[in-house]
Amino acid sequence: MSFFTDVPRERPLFPVPEQELFAYNGRGWTEAPREYIVPAILPWAVPLGRSERTVVALRTAEVWPEAVTLRLSVYSRDSLLDEPGEGLIDHRRVPDYNALLVGVLFADGTRASSETISVPSAAQPGGPVLRAKGLGGTQFQVEHEIFLWPLPPEGPLTVIVQWLHRGIAETHTELDGAAIRAAAKDAGEIWPGLPKRQTHGLPVRRVGKQVAITPEWGPPLPVRGRSPKAE
Q1: Is 219 part of any domain?
Q2: What's phi and psi for 137, nearest 5 deg?
Q3: Average pLDDT over residues 133-157
Q4: Element at 136 (helix H, strand E)
């Protein structure tokens, strides 16, 4: 008798992952809509912070209809990380103020930074969202992506970096908020007119590679056999 059964297994109630791309869910604050939009590119290259052996620089900005992604590179004359894919910026419950910190200050006085925990949510946040992650690199050069929502208002968008462990004091660099807003108009939609995803008459939202139904009368119901995650 075989240990493993050879009979067909019951299919899960909500099969994952999705096999078809459906319409954008409109939650611009969760992540860049890469599957739906080609961003406008601002080829800005400017140092954001510097010490004798380390440089933090902005390489380019990707502008989406509701958000902007800043591409940062860290360069060093000595080894930065044994595993560059981990990145140098981390949203910790207790921030390490000697580590690399990144923040933004909008012209209207609102702000966001990597010193706070940033978890995607289904509900629209009441203030700006900043989310940083590492994109890999080498021991001496590490790429980062800084996702920022919403688009900044017209006026200066101030980017602040600090890395006390590497001798970089708090450094402020102003970017043109009006130029970012103007570029957002050039972000192009890839798949206009996609249908919205429906399951049993209820809208479905994506949660990583899982899906969860969202009843109108309460919180999302988790996928059977999996733990729900915030989007």
Answers
A1: no
A2: 150, -140
A3: 94
A4: strand 129-137
pLDDT-derived band at 219 (thresholds 50, 70, 90) equals: very low
In this structure, how many other beta carbons lie within 10 angstroms of the beta carbon of residue 26?
A: 10
Q: Would residue 7 count as lying in a domain?
A: no
Answer yes or no: is 67 within a domain. Answer: yes
CATH number at residue 151: 2.60.40
| pLDDT interval class at 67 (50, 70, 90) | very high
Angle at 110 between CA 104 and CA 115, to 5 degrees: 50
The model's pTM is: 0.77
Domain encompassing residue 134: 37-189
Mean pLDDT of the chain: 82
Cα–Cα distance, 120 to 229 (Å, whole number): 10
CA distance 43 to 189: 21
Name the residue with tokens 């809208």: 203
Q: Which two tokens stand for residue 59?
A: 């390489």
How far apart CA 143 and CA 84 sit, in angstroms, is 8
* Comparison of pLDDT for 174 and 8, the residue scoring more: 174
Specify the amino acid at residue 174.
E
Is 160 within a domain?
yes
Q: Pull the structure tokens for residue 53.
A: 């052996």
Q: What angle do CA 98, 103, 108 make, to 5 degrees?
A: 145
CA atoms of 155 and 175, how far apart (whole Å) = 9
Strand pairing partners for 142?
74, 137
Domain count for the chain, please give it. Answer: 1
The span from the CA of 64 to the CA of 87, in Å, is: 23
* Residues 231 and 206 sit within 8 Å (Cβ to Cβ): yes
